[in-house]
Amino acid sequence: MSQDRQTPRVEAEAAGEFFGGVSRRRFLKGVGAAVGLLAVGVLPAFAQELAAPNAGSGGAEAAHEAGGSLEGFIEEDAPVNYPGEPVFYAPPVGNQKWAMVIDVKACVGCRKCVYACVKENNIGRNSGFTYIQVLEMEPGTMELESSTLDYAEGGSPDNWYLPVQCMHCAKPTCVYGCPVKATWKEPDGIVVVDYNKCISCRNCIVTCPYGARHNNWVEPEVPKNEVNPKVPLEVKSGVIEKCTFCIHRVRNGMTTACVEACPVGARTFGDLNDPNSAVSKLIKTRRVFRMKEELGTEPMIWYVG
Amino acid sequence: MTDVATPRPGVKRFIGVDFDFGALRKASPRYWLWVSVLGVFLLLGVVSWSQLLTHGGAVAGMRDNYPWGLWFVDYMYYIGLAAGGLVVYASVHLFGAKQFTALSRIAVLQAGVLTMMALMGILTDMERPIRMMWFALTPNPTSPFLYTGSAAGGYMVLCFIDLWVLITGKGGHKLAMTMTLIALPFAIYMHTTTAFVLSMNKSRELWHSAVMVPIFLTSATASGISLLLIFAYIVQSVTQIKFEPSMFRSLSTLLATVMIIDLFLLVVEILSIYWPTSAMTGHVIRMNEFISGGYAWAFLPILVLGFSAFFLLSRRPSRHIPAVQITAAAMYLVAVALKRYSLMAMGFARNTLGQLTGIFVPSPVEIFLALGILSFGLLFITVAMKVLPMETPVDDDEEHEHYGEARRTDAVLEAEVNEL
After folding, report:
1. What is the ipTM of this complex?
2. Residues of A in contact with B127 (CB under 8 A)
């Protein structure tokens, strides 16, 4: 019995064959191909590391392990494609990490933040967009597809409201997607657009999961007496713009226009680097969630309910 | 056309190519009528572009909910159509498919012009074309947009070099072979990166699928071969160039094969959207727009036309009939055009915040701009067919030698298999 089994194997070895009649040369070729395939498989991961060199993997988990420390989020929120010089329309970077917390339990859907933002940021009254979009949500669901954007003024007590704007993501797909590096993430976490460089290819609009980016299809028009001199206007014609976390205000010690305008105090803005700031405390102590967190963009706006 | 070597009036020799401008002078009134019609549309296109540059994107049908409109549909379509030329060209030089030799110059010309038209779409869409320089100065390696643009630019140049190699015969079979070996992977790279512009967006549910890449390759090849087949019939009827019926039969067989792979991938994609164990709300609710919603008129005909075209060509007794071939090819061309339109809409029919955005209707400015680019391409081909020596001279020796080579390789392979 054992002899019967052994004979073919010996013959096969004599013929330079093993593994069921595969010649050595072919086997080696196969191994080569497998190694090649593996190498190709590794490439995307490598590319991701290239894209976000400072992003320590599993930052969020680390934060929870460290007993409510925000270290992971702060580390994650590193500059991306930052050219290293101050934005022409804002003061230089400080050492803060800006973040926002929005209380959806408090929000009544009055759109006061939207109007304040339009005035503050010289958004063209003819442009047809706003930085902040407040969604009227159906009770019992988080599903965006059943939400309403153009709900009647004032809102209704039967629904709840989800204000959405640029999330200043730690892994901003818009910044990764811009073909010419006309948009980047500053060291303090604010994602900015260089209006003098943007080629208006709209790839960032396509790739942003939050609908936060808008193109100026027309020359933005703002009534003369309402123009905010601290924010650019003419250069925004024909290029992309979006929420800047009121970069011109927050870097001068003020808070954002939307936070100031909210009549119910649903919005909190602050510095994650400061453990005693309101946002740090809220994120550490309250049950918070982030929009479309499963996409892994690491948004810097938290919602609390 | 065959006596290219003998000097004739009106023939100018430049970079080793005989430009027969005399043929233009002898052209029929019908030819000039066709050229003038194209010229009028070209002019209208130029006027539309100037409108776009002076008034901004507002005169186009695009808005934030449809950031890419008709130009993007055309971009995907033209890039895809360019694939057919390469498949035929590569078949001649890599697989010794000598029945396609007569078509190789026309195929390469078609690929080059279509890629040029696609690039003109990007250029005319830029509100500030001068800022294109940033593509070269500060390119962002993580942007898929960068790769498709550069790939298309490179591919266009490659096609025109290929055409020059084919016409002048410089470097002989060896150079033609080398060019194929460069062009084929480059074409795959181009179609892949064009698909990446869609599939690499986690923000757009229906685009974010790995199948997007192979389906781009198959749709591209199928539509490209369809166009080439129809174009060959047109060339045959308006010029002296004649093709063998066997060439059309081979093209049809190839076309039917690629069609069914393309349709298979599409059906698999639809299945994975709706299958109960894989259906996700965001995907299903968006796809519903295309099955029963506002875009059904564009999407459902893709399946109907696609499968009908395949059945027309799959039947052996009728496959050789020119009318059947032309009908099937035309049906698939329309199907892929609708597919490109639907594909654009799939990203935008509901925006990233889940809101319905309405049907995309291009504005007159957009339409005339697209027609202008189309007439530019047609004009380019019309003049090139007249002025350039597009007919492949019969060179039996080289063909037989090459064909023999291919056979020999087959024989060696067979022997190896037998040995094992």
Report:
1. 0.85
2. 200, 238-239
